Amino acid sequence: MAHEDTHDGEPEVSAPKKTSVGFPGIAQSMRIALDEMGPVRSARTLLKMNHVDGFDCPSCAWPDPDPEHRKTAEFCENGAKAVSWEATRKRVDAAFFAAHPIAELRAQDDHWLEHHGRLTEPMYLAPDATHYAPISWDDAIGLVADRLKALPDPNRAVFYTSGRASNEAAFVYQLLARRLGTNNLPDCSNMCHESSGAALSETIGVGKGVVTLADIEKHAALIVIVGQNPGTNHPRMLTALEKAKRRGARIVAINPLPEAGFGRFRNPQTPRGLLGRGTVLADSYLPVRVNGDLALFAGVNKALLAREDAAPGTVLDQDFIATYCDGFAEASAALRALDWTEITGQCGLSREQIEEFAAQVVASDSVVVCWAMGLTQHRNAVATIREIVNFLLLRGNVGRPGAGPSPIRGHSNVQGDRTMGIWEKMPDSFLDALQAEFGFDPPREHGWDTVDSIRAMRDGKVDVFFALGGNFVAATPDTAVTEAAMANCALTVHVATKLNRSHLCHGREALILPCLGRTERDVRAGVEQFVTVEDSMSMVHASRGRLLPGSDALRSEIAIVTDLGHALFGDSDGIGWRAMGADYRVIRKHIEHVVPGFHAFEERAVQPGGFMLPRGPHDSRTFKTATGKARFTVNPPTMVQVPDGHLLLQTVRSHDQFNTTVYGLDDRYRGIKGGRRVVFVNGADLRAFGLRDGDAVDIISVADDGERRAKSFRAVQYPTPPGCAAAYFPEANVLVPLDSVAETSNTPASKSVVIRLEATGQTSAAGTAERNAARMAGTGAG
Ligand SMILES: Nc1nc2c(c(=O)[nH]1)N[C@H]1C(S)=C(S)[C@@H](COP(=O)(O)OP(=O)(O)OC[C@H]3O[C@@H](n4cnc5c(=O)[nH]c(N)nc54)[C@H](O)[C@@H]3O)O[C@H]1N2
Ligand SMILES: Nc1nc2c(c(=O)[nH]1)N[C@H]1C(S)=C(S)[C@@H](COP(=O)(O)OP(=O)(O)OC[C@H]3O[C@@H](n4cnc5c(=O)[nH]c(N)nc54)[C@H](O)[C@@H]3O)O[C@H]1N2
Ligand SMILES: [Mo]
């Protein structure tokens, strides 16, 4: 990786890859590790990843194998990148901030900002100042407390959370917000799996997945992977899929892009994988049109019903439907009435392809459906996921081994944060428990989620924006609107490990509070502490950092939040903020009392592998829905209308990024090297626009409230269905209208952006200069 040339430039393009991992993956992550950490630290750190006595990988939320089955290095290319990035020896210290005015930093791209290294001490930006300057911890915490105390209404504060916060940090953080008197707790999940949570709570009574790693590895006969790119975003899932394949399971991938992870997998953990040809993972691949999954699943369900009609008693699980479900009559009638041309027209697949998929389903005793952002970030996302629940219920594929819905979560502890109460609308049962434990009245009125927080900030309803991690302005839609919304706040505060754009799009005053990362030793009152996390499959376990902290001044997120709690409320409220900050066991005791499923938390957290939270639908076919049954629902297929001459753009991650953290400028599997401003388009569409592969284009999104432009992209001819396009997030976020959201979940529809392309008549290299100029001018085009 050429760190000297860190600016996004003219990319080199080659054919997409059909094989994942193997030696190139290891070589790539070792390059980054050596560059960031040097050899000794690299070896020490990477060997402790995902070990029973080590730290939880801060990358994705994929579960760890049983303790007995973990490899010496439970290694994954992108996990290694995430760890190296955090454990880097580079530093962004007071001298760095003195040398670089904010205006100059804002002109840099996201890769440049983060690659300068770890933040080392608290920094303060005074009103009208041009530079951040050092501030002591006491003054920083005192300042935040003063501003919060001065609020005329606690709802003028917003507390954002990114999904890397531990259970303990999340618990004290939500406690602080609610003790202050607000439920304004937006989080990254609002932009991520909120649609899954909404659909699953309504239909099966829990907002998260119910499938375990063993279901995938050992039991499922058919694994459907829809709207997910596991080779890049959950690389360890490929190992699980390989195990499933070797015992005879079948895999169907549904995706507008033929991602490398569906092809030949060369497992870096086995000689077979490294030296042999590897294992082909997906048996079939359905190139669905972007946003066409609702129609596709409605079609499969219709086909299953037709097969049952042709041979009654052979296709549906009638006993399961009769005993455990309701709504079947209405849902099946609606599906039977659907028109095939409507279905095939929407999803872009033929009736034969859909019938063939239905045949595979009927031939499989148990089916798991895994999905991620390809489903959740559309306007019809909740309806699509509800239709997938219909699909599973039809054949009783919930509540038995190898079957069920499996939303694959993103951030390593995003699921745990929700369990701990990070949600703007926690149910009364949780708030009652909080009240009983701490003796104050938590607010009951729902707070703002991410999109509503941005609207409130834009409209001048927020004075203090506080973020526990994340990169709010880069991760959220409508970059220009969000940046202006942040500037509208009186105070913006970021608890962070690395410098990012959100620290530079600040309120009138701003603070950066540098914290420990997962990899680092956390000692409080002379005693080494650990924290806990919950993975995508409801396993809760301990995580212990091993490295010396990046600077002596770093504090844990828990210490920062509990110090703020003490500064706000002192000892008078009896909550004992200081005691929680001094000994995390105190926090775990409170969690045990407040959150269901956490009995004997302390003991169970440290047992090898941790413990599993109860999953009613899977364990006992218990469905805590409005009717106490699993619910079939009616979801008429609809999709975003795309006018002639326009495409539907989805925004994706490259192989070299973690959300807004850009490790490098390559996307190896998709054949892109050295640049991120690319837009992937079907060849026929390019020709229809009079464009050729390699042309420089602007991307213009069109919405009811007007047009938005992202400048200077390179058009790349790519095997995606006609009418579809893809570009990288966060560069493309400027195109996503704030008001374009999923129904019910309010998740930004960042994978359903209606766009057109405009040739700029220049090479994309010339565009780089223009783009930098645009960023300097703060037009939000960057
Ligand atoms: N290395 C790495 N790991 C990560 C992350 C990271 O950025 N880097 N991010 C983490 C986070 S927070 C999350 S949420 C997850 C995200 O994991 P993913 O959801 O895999 O991430 P995306 O890159 O958004 O990929 C979306 C996939 O859905 C497909 N897709 C897009 N639109 C549609 C559609 O309409 N229908 C179908 N069927 N498919 C569609 C895209 O082609 C792509 O393959 O990964 C987590 N893990
Ligand atoms: N267009 C588009 N937009 C999207 C998406 C998309 O697919 N397309 N995906 C959405 C999704 S799924 C998500 S989850 C969000 C992600 O949104 P966020 O969670 O807000 O963003 P991240 O990029 O994960 O945050 C990176 C920053 O977190 C900080 N950080 C890293 N580790 C730690 C830590 O241990 N503690 C603290 N306090 N800070 C830390 C670093 O300073 C780093 O700069 O983005 C969403 N936005
Ligand atoms: Mo996410």
Automatic annotation (TrEMBL):
Query: Which InterPro entries has this protein been placed in?
Result: Asp_de-COase-like_dom_sf, MopB_CT_YdeP, MoPterin_dinucl-bd_dom, Mopterin_OxRdtase, Mopterin_OxRdtse_a_bac, Prok_molybdopt-oxidoreductase, YdeP_MopB
Query: Which cofactors does this protein require?
Result: Mo-bis(molybdopterin guanine dinucleotide); [4Fe-4S] cluster
Question: Which part of the chain is the Molybdopterin oxidoreductase domain?
Answer: 118-493
UniProt xrefs under Gene3D superfamilies: 3.40.50.740, Dimethylsulfoxide Reductase, domain 2 (3.40.228.10)
SUPFAM superfamilies annotated for this entry? Answer: ADC-like (SSF50692), Formate dehydrogenase/DMSO reductase, domains 1-3 (SSF53706)
Chain spans, region Disordered: 1-22
Q: Which UniProt keywords apply?
A: 4Fe-4S, Iron, Iron-sulfur, Metal-binding, Molybdenum, Oxidoreductase
Q: Where is the Molybdopterin dinucleotide-binding domain?
A: 647-753
Q: Compositionally biased, Basic and acidic residues: which spans?
A: 1-10
What family, per the record? Answer: Belongs to the prokaryotic molybdopterin-containing oxidoreductase family.
**PANTHER family found in the cross-reference section:** PROTEIN YDEP, RESPIRATORY NITRATE REDUCTASE
Q: What is this protein called?
A: FdhF/YdeP family oxidoreductase
